[in-house]
């Protein structure tokens, strides 16, 4: 309970503290190269994410950073729990935005930071809006930004990796950037498996070898979803 309260209070105070930086990030010079600009913008969210995970007491091990290619990528990860995002934001050495459910857009400050991070809000219940979100994501990738997707669509809470919805793989097909699969294990042990209390846990993140954009171009997106899911499962213990 103490960790849960500490996490909550830290998040609230840090978000308020971040407002001046958020304002500066919105005004950042558009002439700065995309990669450099993204790294500047991600400094505070990265620091915030690492502090959050430190408060949880999590022991985070990450491997495969050397496999990260230059330029934009589509990160594809399984989705265990609520602490997936701060774990990946804090410890993956490549800035990225991510696909989020549209309801988060109503959350003050957090949604503003997500917009600056080039996140895409998607309403899965509205097919037309979902298609538009995919197109927006493709444009961001073509501009040089990276994007993370959880194609299961919901948290497994530590259960088996679910089926990957193929629609989101259109991002990689249409933008022709590499797919970088990520296997994440243990985040559900921090929260979801503890009666909604926060406890220390061991988290393992594995960055898998990229799937070349030319390969994804020549594979049906349903087959691509199955292949990438299998890569992620194969890199789990």
Automatic annotation (TrEMBL):
Segments forming domain Phospholipid/glycerol acyltransferase: 73-187
Family designation: Belongs to the 1-acyl-sn-glycerol-3-phosphate acyltransferase family.
Superkingdom classification of source: Bacteria
InterPro entries, per database record: AGP_acyltrans, Plipid/glycerol_acylTrfase
Any Pfam family hit: Acyltransferase
Pathway: Lipid metabolism
A GO molecular-function annotation: acyltransferase activity
EC number assigned by the record: 2.3.1.51
Keywords, comma-separated and alphabetical: Acyltransferase, Lipid biosynthesis, Lipid metabolism, Phospholipid biosynthesis, Phospholipid metabolism, Transferase
Keyword Acyltransferase: yes
Listed CDD domains: LPLAT_AGPAT-like
Enzyme class, UniProt record, top EC level: transferase
Transmembrane intervals: none
Catalytic activity line of the entry: a 1-acyl-sn-glycero-3-phosphate + an acyl-CoA = a 1,2-diacyl-sn-glycero-3-phosphate + CoA
Protein name: 1-acyl-sn-glycerol-3-phosphate acyltransferase
Domain remarks: The HXXXXD motif is essential for acyltransferase activity and may constitute the binding site for the phosphate moiety of the glycerol-3-phosphate.
NCBIfam families tied to this protein: AGP_acyltrn
């Amino acid at each position: 309970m103490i960790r849960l309260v500490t996490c909550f209070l830290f998040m609230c105070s840090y978000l308020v503290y971040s407002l001046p930086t958020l304002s500066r990030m919105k005004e950042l010079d558009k002439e700065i190269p995309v990669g450099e600009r993204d790294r500047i913008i991600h400094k505070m969210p990265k620091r915030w994410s690492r502090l959050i995970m430190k408060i949880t007491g999590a022991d985070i091990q990450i491997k495969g950073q050397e496999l990260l290619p230059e330029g934009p990528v589509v990160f594809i990860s399984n989705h265990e729990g609520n602490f997936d995002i701060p774990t990946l934001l804090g410890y993956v050495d490549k800035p990225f935005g991510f696909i989020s459910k549209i309801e988060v857009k109503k959350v003050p400050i957090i949604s503003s930071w997500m917009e600056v991070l080039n996140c895409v809000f998607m309403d899965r219940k509205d097919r037309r809006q979902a298609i538009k979100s995919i197109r927006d994501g493709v444009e961001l990738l073509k501009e040089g930004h990276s994007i993370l997707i959880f194609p299961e669509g919901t948290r497994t809470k530590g259960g088996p990796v679910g089926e990957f919805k193929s629609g989101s793989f259109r991002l990689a097909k249409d933008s022709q950037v590499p797919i970088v699969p990520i296997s994440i294990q243990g985040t559900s042990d921090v929260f979801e498996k503890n009666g909604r209390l926060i406890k220390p846990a061991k988290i393992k993140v594995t960055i898998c070898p990229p799937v070349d954009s030319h390969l994804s171009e020549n594979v049906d997106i349903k087959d691509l979803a199955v292949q990438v899911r299998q890569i992620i499962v194969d890199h789990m213990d």
